Amino acid sequence: MADTARRGALAGRRPSSALLGVVPFFVYVTVFLLVPTLVVVVGAFIATGPGGQGGLSLANVRALAEPAVTSALWHSLILSAVTAVAGAVIGAFLAYAVSTARPDGVLRRFTTSLCGVLAQFGGVALAFAFLATFGATGYLTKLLASTGLDDTGGLWLYEWNKGLMLVYLYFQIPLMLIVFLPAVEGLRPQWREAAETLGGSTWLYWRKVAAPILFPSFVGALLLLFTNAFSAYATAAALVSQGSPLLPLAIGGTLNSEVILGQENVGKAMALLMVVVVAAVMTLYAAIDRRASRWLAR
């Protein structure tokens, strides 16, 4: 009996073989997340001297107050907020429509699978698709121009507050459906039946029962969409080639510009600003998501 207990205690001290399975994940997170974040944080507070890197300084942080940076930040916030709100509202209605379909039906499975693909369809491929359709030489642009319905030549597509918003909605709406659909499915039929039994109308049920329950999940999904748009880079870089109207493009300009040299650490300071904004939003999202999970689990 004592030998068995001793062997069990020794076995408990041995590292579990299950931990070996997560080693690649920790290596991946360290190389592609922790190390780049550390480089950004350190570089944001190091001045760039005439001969290269200088000492510690707040010059890069003070550069964030320049009009070009504040304008790019403001444009990014507007773009992210507008596409997040529009995507959340449209996606919420679509999620409710999908939830009314048969759980094992073809329509529901097709819609959720399609949204899973479209939510990840971004970057240069998405920009090319819109350029081929709505660009200056796009098929639809030429078709509308030949009928006299469009005289803009597709130039609206290259503006951050017009074309880029439409492109972002292409992946924001499917993402909202995927994120918000479980919350809608969490509404129990018994709650609606109870409201109807007590004489409540459909409007009263949604206003007094369903809406308060879904509101935390809706806000959480809205914050997730905001972060998704705020951190997007490849799609905007492929569409907007003149200037840097958005913060991610401004960061890219400081790192690869052949005109403005020695601004790499300013770009790291802007990246640090993005990290702070995204971290604050995701912290709020995690708190709201925990609250919504407790509600729907009851």
Automatic annotation (TrEMBL):
Residues 73-285 form the ABC transmembrane type-1 domain. InterPro entries: MetI-like (IPR000515), MetI-like_sf (IPR035906). It is found in: Cell membrane. It holds the Pfam family BPD_transp_1. Its main location: membrane. Belongs to the binding-protein-dependent transport system permease family. CysTW subfamily. This is ABC transporter permease. It comes from Terrabacter tumescens.
